[in-house]
């Protein structure tokens, strides 16, 4: 068999199994049907002395691996803010793998051109400055890291310290502040950027930063500072008051960064844009395309208003790299030199949807969350514990044990999944609506499964006083 025939055979097998996977998703149980050790056994634990054909390898992976897959692309998977995949984005991602272009350089016109178009479209859709620098990274954690690194270098430069040349040791300390309900990825990004853990500012019951407390904290300290704000609290979906908070941050001479892993996309919807009022005045933003936009993993987006701050923090050159002196290569916008063209599926998703389609996608996710809220509120023994303003719905039973049991029962039923979590000192189940295919039928099936699980556990018979004590009514 020729090499081309080997490619054809491997891709034919992959296509057949991928199509079957997608066709079975609507009815497939969410939970995996095999554990890691079973999958290792099925794949074969020993590296053989002789190889196998490409067809055999892909066939084994697909057949042996299928029982260990989680129904994450299912329209009834509500865990971890994980989106599905749009058809055009999936097809484009397959082409990206086949083309195998290193998109760290403008040497590759097709992938670079598609990514630059996608970047411009994203800035337009999200209402961000057209002149901003935008890089495609692995996810929101790396996007936060990229933005915070650019912020770190720029605020230090303002006080006369060149951290890019001299490092951080011996320089002024950069104060790093964030709301008490920041996402942990912001902390991780801050540690990687050498900022340490953030000083936490009090937040309200929906996780929104207390702007007055932020102003006091900035006034009490001195020196360069970075403040991480939030578009879309991971439990409530709440948004910080950007107009007020950014004004306070800039008045203190600090840098305003916004972690908007899923919430930044509200800016693309005329109906929901009010949630992000003032957002465009920040200095940097981080989000994911593999969440709300429904591109395949992995695709995060890092945006810095001052493009030069981003390129100076991330950019470099070498004797063997093409260089025109403009610091305009794709690798100047991200931490990586070698990377796949992860912005091409973004171009495909945006081209498939169009401006109106992106708005409809975002509106549809919020509408599905509102429908889940209304339905879950009507199930005896359950209470909604957040103000549902975007795509997050948190529910609790009368006590922590019952809440966790409900989550287990829901997963065991195979129809739907919600993430168990803790919020405000109690166990909750978090329904994160992120899949473009989550329609009214998916919501109805989820609510039916939740009602059956609650009835199975006898939650309707739980004492009302215990329920009221465990979860305040909103």
UniProtKB/TrEMBL annotation:
Molecular function (GO) terms for this protein are:
transaminase activity
Pfam families of this UniProt entry?
A: Pyridoxal_deC
Q: Which cofactors? A: pyridoxal 5'-phosphate
Keywords from the named record: Aminotransferase, Decarboxylase, Lyase, Pyridoxal phosphate, Transferase
Cross-referenced Gene3D superfamilies, in alphabetical order? Answer: Aspartate Aminotransferase, domain 1, Type I PLP-dependent aspartate aminotransferase-like (Major domain)
Q: Which PANTHER family match?
A: GROUP II PYRIDOXAL-5-PHOSPHATE DECARBOXYLASE (PTHR11999), MIP05841P (PTHR11999:SF70)
Q: Which family does it belong to?
A: Belongs to the group II decarboxylase family.
Question: What is this protein called in UniProt?
Answer: Aminotransferase class V-fold PLP-dependent enzyme
From what organism does this protein derive? Gryllotalpicola koreensis
């Amino acid at each position: 068999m020729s090499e081309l025939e080997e490619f054809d055979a491997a891709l034919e097998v992959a296509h057949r199994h991928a199509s079957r996977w997608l066709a079975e998703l609507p009815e497939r149980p969410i939970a995996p049907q095999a554990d890691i050790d079973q999958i290792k056994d099925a794949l074969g634990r020993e590296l053989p002395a002789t190889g196998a054909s490409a067809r055999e390898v892909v066939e084994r992976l697909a057949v042996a691996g299928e029982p260990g897959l989680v129904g994450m692309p299912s329209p009834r998977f509500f865990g971890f803010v994980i989106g599905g995949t749009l058809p055009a984005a999936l097809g484009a991602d397959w082409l990206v793998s086949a083309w195998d272009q290193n998109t760290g350089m403008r040497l590759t016109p097709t992938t670079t051109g598609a990514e630059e178009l996608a970047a411009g479209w994203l800035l337009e859709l999200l209402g961000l400055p057209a002149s901003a620098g935008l890089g495609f990274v692995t996810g929101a954690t790396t996007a936060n890291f990229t933005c915070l690194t650019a912020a770190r270098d720029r605020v230090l430069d303002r006080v006369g310290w060149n951290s890019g040349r001299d490092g951080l040791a011996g320089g002024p300390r950069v104060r790093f502040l964030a709301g008490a309900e920041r996402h942990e990825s912001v902390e991780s990004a801050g540690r990687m950027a050498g900022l340490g853990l953030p000083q936490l500012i009090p937040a309200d019951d929906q996780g929104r930063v207390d702007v007055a407390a932020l102003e006091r904290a900035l006034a009490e300290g001195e020196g360069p500072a970075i403040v991480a704000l939030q578009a879309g609290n991971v439990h409530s979906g709440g948004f910080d008051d950007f107009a007020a908070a950014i004004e306070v941050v800039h008045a203190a001479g600090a840098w305003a960064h916004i972690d908007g892993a899923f919430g930044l996309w509200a800016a693309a919807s005329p109906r929901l844009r009010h949630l992000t009022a003032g957002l465009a005045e920040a200095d940097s933003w981080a989000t994911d395309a593999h969440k709300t936009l429904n591109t395949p993993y992995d695709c995060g987006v890092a945006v810095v208003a001052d493009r030069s701050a981003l390129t100076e923090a991330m950019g470099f050159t070498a004797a063997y790299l093409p260089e025109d002196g403009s610091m305009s290569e794709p690798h100047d916008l991200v931490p990586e030199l070698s990377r796949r063209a992860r912005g091409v599926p973004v171009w495909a998703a945006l081209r498939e949807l169009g401006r109106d389609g992106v708005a409809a996608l975002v509106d549809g996710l919020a509408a599905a969350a509102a429908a889940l809220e209304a339905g879950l509120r009507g199930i005896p023994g359950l209470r909604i514990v957040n103000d549902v303003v975007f795509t997050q719905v948190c529910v609790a039973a009368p006590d922590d044990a019952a809440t966790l049991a409900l989550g287990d029962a829901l997963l065991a039923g195979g129809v739907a999944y919600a993430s168990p979590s803790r919020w405000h000192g109690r166990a909750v189940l978090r329904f994160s609506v992120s899949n473009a295919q989550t329609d009214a039928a998916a919501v109805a099936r989820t609510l039916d499964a939740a009602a059956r699980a609650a009835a199975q556990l006898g939650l309707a018979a739980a004492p009302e006083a215990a329920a009221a004590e465990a979860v305040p009514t909103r």
